[in-house]
Amino acid sequence: MAAIFGQPNFDALVLHLNGAEITYGHFLTTLVSFLLLAFTIMLLVSAIRRATGREAAGAQGSRECDHCKSFIPVDASVCMFCTRDVEPVVPG
């Protein structure tokens, strides 16, 4: 990752306030590094899910409850969230 973006280094950033020295640069460097790593992992996982066809697997077996708008299994006859009766969807 450092080869693509370069190693972020904000360690020299310091805020002088009423005679106090607040060094926020190290925190900023760590935060930027974490966000870049998290974004890279998210892209990698997304690409793997898309390649294996598992991206929409959860959406195929669920539907929205008419009453509380929560997602429930397609063949459910009672909503597990609001406990109201729902008509099961008959595949066809």
TrEMBL record:
It comes from the Bacteria. The keyword Nucleotide-binding does not apply. Keywords: Membrane, Transmembrane, Transmembrane helix. The chain crosses the membrane at residues 24-45. SUPFAM superfamilies: Gated mechanosensitive channel. The keyword Transferase does not apply. This is Large conductance mechanosensitive channel. It comes from Microlunatus flavus.
